[in-house]
Amino acid sequence: MASSSSWLSLSLVNSYAYAFLILVTSSKNATGCYTSIFGFGDSLTDTGNLVKIDPPDDPPHEAFPPYGETFFHVPTGRSSDGRLIIDFIAEYYGLPLVPPYVEWKNEKRANFWKGVNFAVIGAPTLDIAFYEERGIHNGITNVSLKVQLAWFKETLTSLCNSSSSCNEFLQSSLFLLGPFGGNDYSRSFYSNASIDEVQSFVPLVAKAIGSAINELIDLGAVTLVVPGMIPFGCLAAYLTKFETSDKTEYDSMDCLIWLNKLTEHHNELLQRELNEIRELHPHATIIYADYYNAVMPLYHSPQKYGFTRGAIVACCGTGGLYNFNEDVLCGNRPFLGCDNPSLYVDWDGYHLTEAAYSLMSKRFTRGAIVACCGTGGLYNFNEDVLCGNRPFLGCDNPSLYVDWDGYHLTEAAYSLMSKSLLDGPYTIPQINSPCVSLAVPADYSFDR
């Protein structure tokens, strides 16, 4: 797994290419690729379950403004100012926004054939009993990954009534499983567990996610997107909790190195688990969504992407170095909102803004094999009307694409590749090795 200081690696281009290739080449176009989406996870994916589970007289802070202000203009139970990645995926595939399971259970409307979301804010991977035995408490929810799977099985009996109809239905469905792990680790830290104890949970969490994937595949799922965790060491909540005067604890982006290493460790073990499952189920398509590296450019160069208020200060909070206070969360008065969430990466200390999620999702949905400049079609390419020849179709932001015109790559892709060649292990011998550098004049500058 790449570290936060080496996100500009060629493997990042490859991971986006692989994810997008799998998602779009199974159909002639994005719209119609999938007939439904099923979501599982925590607050990065919940579209309204927790706010409907909690008692009306004690709602979570996500039930209050300014949550939802950017797109929905009212709180919906999403942990952001607007849409989440699951929303952008649904829009990309021409599907309605995925409704929460609790809403389905109460209403069972016809459009739930298009998908159901079982994710719950605060959901851990491992069962609550595991943590209670260790004195670790989750004050948000007891809905673990196993509970969400049970909800899915209950839902399935209502959506299809035979083995053949279920298989057909699930084969045309997209499953978003996660991210998971964040609440397993954060709640442990908030219960004063040591870093060594928390690290010991990582293999168990990865195995539990793998077990859930196997179970879904056994039920009939064939296309699963499994996200890794975002860099916790860059979130305002944890920067506040673990603030230290020791500057060596921080990287060049002012993120906590040790906490990002924990996140990287989780993502690495998760990817190993996915590789094993791919061997067990070669008929299934299991896609690792690299949330960590998808968002890392926003922390590395927030100004470049329009986040002029920075990446590590929360938009909605209650003041302080990172505009975060665990005792007065966003939505609980007297919070301090921000005038323009689109200028921030961090929304409330724990979650990102809609603008950040939008850019992250585009890194997966715009992908690597669709040309930025072309004339429409599956790959936005037509040999008879090349880029530059009218009527070509340009793209709004080439930095979100790998392919420029069907034959060549974008500057952003070449930049990633060149930095990997100059700084990384992709030349043999390495360009920066002593034997090669001797052939380069001392006064030569790569900035020329």
TrEMBL record:
InterPro entries: GDSL, Lipase_GDSL_AS, SGNH_hydro_sf, SGNH_plant_lipase-like. Residues 1-19 form the signal peptide. It comes from Ilex paraguariensis. Belongs to the 'GDSL' lipolytic enzyme family. The lineage of its organism: Eukaryota, Viridiplantae, Streptophyta, Embryophyta, Tracheophyta. This is Uncharacterized protein. Keywords: Glycoprotein, Hydrolase, Signal. GO terms for molecular function: hydrolase activity. It comes from the Eukaryota.
